[in-house]
Amino acid sequence: MTQPTDIRRVRGGGTSEHLHTALQLAASGVPPLPLRAGKLPFGNCPSCANNACGGRPNMKTPGPCTCPAPCHGWAAATTDPCVLNSRTWVRAWREAAAVAYHPGGAGLTVVDLDNAAAIAWARETLPATRTVPTTRGEHWIYRGTMASSNAVRPGVDIKSLMQYARWLGNGIGVTAPLPAVVRTLAVKEPSPARRAPQTLTAPLRASEGECRHRTPTYLDHGIAMAVQRITDARSAIHATVYRTFLAVLSTHGRCDCLTDAHVARLFAAAQAKGESARHCTDAWTNALTRLGL
Q: What is the Cα 84 distance to its own chain's centre?
């Protein structure tokens, strides 16, 4: 890793070990963030301190933050040394219990194995890759991104897009490409009554086809309801946007009826609630992946 040259002296004396680690990660293209005790992220600005912005109680999901940039949760992870070394983050680094990182932002997926049984399953099922020991198990790290998902099987979580993982060192082994067997873990089996999935090759581009099982009026009404659902949200904005995108795609995502105009209405509603364009794209991509589109 490239050695950073500017490490701010943190009030209270000495160079912060966690800040030093974070700057090393950032220099290598891995976006870090500080963690409080209990593996919880900070609210790294006055407006979001003590969860004042309305996110979930554990701060893992930001609320409708109106800061210039998302300042907590996985969205706070950054490779910008000026942000990591800024006055805004001084208190966080001084009080940090650990360093985390955003795997998806580094182009990675972490398969989090929580116990011996999960590790045994991985050794029998997954291709070998870089492995990092954890307190209770192991992190198996693959090259590639996907939707994050908890409890995909007993003792197994997937951490990639819109999620963070604790930094526990480089581990051992060579990072392998993300295998299909890991992607499959996060995809729920379709209902037997559902039609066979069709590939949505250009979900953000206007389609010429018509919805074969719904009328245009039904689609317009559905988009209007989806926009209203996002607009009416008062908390858990990230989660509401994702669930709304998921609902729209599960009804119309396989019918080539969604156009740029429909998607733009959904994104505009989400951004009006404080979501960034990047967060909207991530949520849309995660919904597509969850549905196997």
A: 19
Tell me the two tokens of residue 44: 């790294």
With CA atoms as reference, report the closest residue to 204 among 290, 104, 287. 287
Q: Is 109 helix (H, G, I), strand (E, B) or coil?
A: strand
Question: Vertex 64, ends 83 and 70: CA angle to 5°?
Answer: 10
Contacts 24+ apart (CB under 8 A), 220-227: 222/248, 222/251, 222/252, 223/248, 223/262, 223/265, 223/266, 226/266, 226/269, 227/265, 227/266, 227/269
Percent of the chain at pLDDT > 90 equals: 30
Amino acid identity of residue 214, one-letter, is R
212 within 8 A of 255, measured Cβ to Cβ = yes
44-101 pLDDT, tens per residue? 666 666 656 555 444 455 445 555 555 667 777 889 898 888 877 777 888 889 999 9
